[in-house]
Every structure is written in C-alpha cells, then in structure tokens.
Amino acid sequence: MKRVIPGALALVLFLMLLPSNPKGNLVPEVMVESFQSAAPFYSAWKIKKWVGNVDVDFLHNGAMPFVRLTSDNSSWAFLRKVSVDLKETPMLTWTWEADALPPGGDGRYRATDDEAAQVYVLFPGKGLLGSLDYRILGYTWETVPSAGTFYTSPKNSNTRIFVLRSERDGLKVWKHEVRDVAADFKRAFGTDAPNPVAFSFQIDSDDTHSFAQSGMADIAFKSR
Questions:
Q1: Which of 12, 167, 196, 186 is nearest to 103 (CA)?
Q2: Domains in the chain, ordered, with CATH?
C-alpha cells in the first residue's frame, strides 16, 4: 500500500523532526543523497514505517554506491528535508533498478497500490493551510501501468504520479532518470511550482501481499 507519506498535522510534526539539508554554495547541483555509507545516511534520513520490516543494504555496482530496498509484504519510506531553488536547479536526476516487482501492482487502484520503487518530492500547499496540506509529486516504477501513465493517487488527492518504468523495462537493469520538476509540477497541479520542502523514496508490497526489491542511487537536483 503506497501510503504516500502521512497527511496534514502528522506530516508537519514528522518534518519538524527531520535534519535539515542545507543548500550548498555549489550551484548547479544540490545533492540529495549519494549513498556512500550507512552512518551519514541514517543521520540525514528518517524512516516512516507503516507495515512490516525495513530491509536496506548498502552496496556497490562497480564504482556506484547504492541502496537495495527489499519489501516482503511491507510498506515503508525514507524521508528528509531539502532546500532547493527550482529557478537554479529544477532537474531531478537519479538512478534506479527493479529486481522484483509486486505481482499485479498498480498504483491507480487502492487494492493493488504497490510499487517496487517510488520517488516523491513534497511541496507546500496553498493558502493559510499550506504548511499542513502538502502537494506531492511522485515518480514510480510500477508493475502494470506502462511508462507515460499519469494519475492521481487513490489515497491522496494532493499526490500526482508519473509512471516512468514498468515490467516492460525488465529486471536488474539500471535506468537513469532526468525530470524537470518545475514543468512536471505545473502539469500536475496547473500552477507554477514553489520550492520543495522534502524528498522521499519508498517501496511497498503489502496490498498484493507479495515481494518487491529495488535499488536506488545518486539523487540530485541540477540545472537545465
């Protein structure tokens, strides 16, 4: 079940507990995570667990460090604050792979809302409740929906999902993604993007009561 991060006040309180991600002086790149080793990772990221056990391994694919996420009938995410100026660094880049997809996983429906790999960018909402009503932009590696599918989460109307990969892309094949977050936000929500406040990546397999496994590497915001 893709819970897409807790809502409203719970999310605000959760974000207040997260370490900050200070914006560096080196533009045009803001590194979100390089996965070099476990200790600095766990000092920067918080775990949000809904169901089952968290299973993470820090590994290397040649010279590239990455984390392997394993979900056995479970649902959990890593979340951290970010400080990003989308006018300077609107391009989100990362590298990922799927090792095992949850059979029948399809985030368009509540009963099958499982994905092997998910990336989320969290933005403030609108008006006086902006700090309580986050808008969330998601990118997923799904089982059933094909790449190019766009949908609103069945569990959170403020979460909009771009499907980038599916079972048609194969297993154990690393893919590099580049997304214009500012442009994607405008397409998803119909307005210019504010600067994001948090970032998350996630895996789950609990709705389909199955198994999923994926790898995540080298997440950054860059200039066009």
A1: 167
A2: 8-21+29-222 (2.60.120.200)
Q: How far is CA 217 from the centre of its chain?
A: 12
Cα three-residue angle 205-208-212, rounded to 5 degrees: 30
What is the dihedral sign for C-alpha 85, 186, 133, 128?
positive
Asked if pLDDT for residue 7 goes beyond 90, the answer is: no
pLDDT in tens, 89-122: 999 999 999 999 999 999 999 999 999 999 999 9
Q: Is the pLDDT of residue 11 over 70?
A: no
Which residue's entry shows tokens 């909009």? 160
93, 178 contact by CB (below 8 A): yes
Contact between 138 and 118 under an 8 Å Cβ cutoff? The reply is yes
Give the full edge-to-edge strand order of the sheet including 75-81. 46-51, 75-81, 198-204, 117-123, 135-141, 159-165, 150-152
Name the pairing type of β-strands 91-100 and 29-33. Answer: unpaired
Distance CA 87, CA 195 (A): 9
Q: CA 59, 116, 185: angle at the middle one, nearest 5?
A: 105
Q: Measured between alpha carbons, how far is 70 from 219 in angstroms, rounded to an integer? A: 19
Closest to 187 (Cα-Cα) out of 162, 212, 156: 162
Residues 204, 1: contact at Cβ < 8 Å?
yes
